[in-house]
TrEMBL record:
Swiss-Prot/TrEMBL GO biological process terms: regulation of mRNA 3'-end processing; transcription antitermination; transcription elongation by RNA polymerase I; transcription elongation by RNA polymerase II
Annotated ranges, domain TFIIS-type: 255-295
SMART domains xrefs: TFS2M, TFS2N, ZnF_C2C2
Subcellular location: Nucleus
Low complexity bias locations: 104-118
Source taxonomy: Eukaryota, Fungi, Dikarya, Basidiomycota, Agaricomycotina
Broad class of the protein's primary localization: nucleus
MF terms (GO), sorted A to Z: RNA polymerase II complex recruiting activity; RNA polymerase II transcription regulatory region sequence-specific DNA binding; zinc ion binding
One GO CC term on file: nucleus
Protein name (Swiss-Prot/TrEMBL): Transcription elongation factor
Gene3D superfamilies: 2.20.25.10, Conserved domain common to transcription factors TFIIS, elongin A, CRSP70, Transcription elongation factor S-II, central domain
Region listing for Disordered, in residue ranges: 81-119
Amino acid sequence: MSADVLELKKLVKQLQSAANEQEIVGILNILKKDFEVTESILRESKVGLAVGKLRTHAAKHVADLAKEIVKKWKVAVEKAKGAAGAHHAKAPQQNGKGPERKASVASTPGTPSTPTTAKVELRTAKSDGVKGSTGDSTRDKCTELIYDALASDSGAPVELILKHAQAVEASVLSDCDGVTAAYKSKIRSLFVNLKDKSNPSLRESIVSGELQAEKFTKMTSQEMASEERKAADNKIRAENFHNSLAAAEQQAETDAFQCSRCKQRKCRYRQAQTRSADEPMTTFVTCTNCGNRWKFS
Ligand SMILES: [Zn+2]
């Protein structure tokens, strides 16, 4: 293992245990300035993954710096590939100005009462470091595909999304009697429906557990669309609930939940019966650090 890889591994550890944003930024600046990377260095040290994750960090300057580094590394890796393979088109030039500064409103930490729509990059199994664990490569790939769809715009923790992605995959497997042609086409169709931009509440109702995987995998596209309308109503109710929750500010903070966005364990939560009395309680969690919210039943 090269010295760079060892050094980078140490930095990855530091990055993961960094106590605050300043520390993260400090390490990122070292990574940005002091290292020439190759594909194998990135892979062996897992630094690509660690920095990649930070692209969705709640603090915009951290996210931007991470994006800048990932871009720089991508260009370096592409270049190396180009040099290795005969003649390769030159990698597109960066304008050197760093990350694009859009006039977007960044989410303001500490003010969870204002619902902000922070612009984050789409999450995937890859960006979250999630891998299927069935031992069957087709099933793993399908689990990851469902994860991609569920996670894309979600603020929920990795474990919660993974749990439901696995449940969806397992349910399709049992519906289709194993990894059959029907299994593959069903997974593809569910993926398309889940990924539908106009259907965010369908994803959310699965991640939150409101819509059971076993029920979901037996639904027709039409039913999914009507589920969308139902879920949209639920979402409005949930959001109102979240808002009143933030306004009340009466709960104690707990470390029982970890925020998937900022990785802190500073959350408030409340449980409520959102549907009929014989169904499980829904738990609403709000991160007091970055304002991220999610719910599950
Ligand atoms: Zn957070």
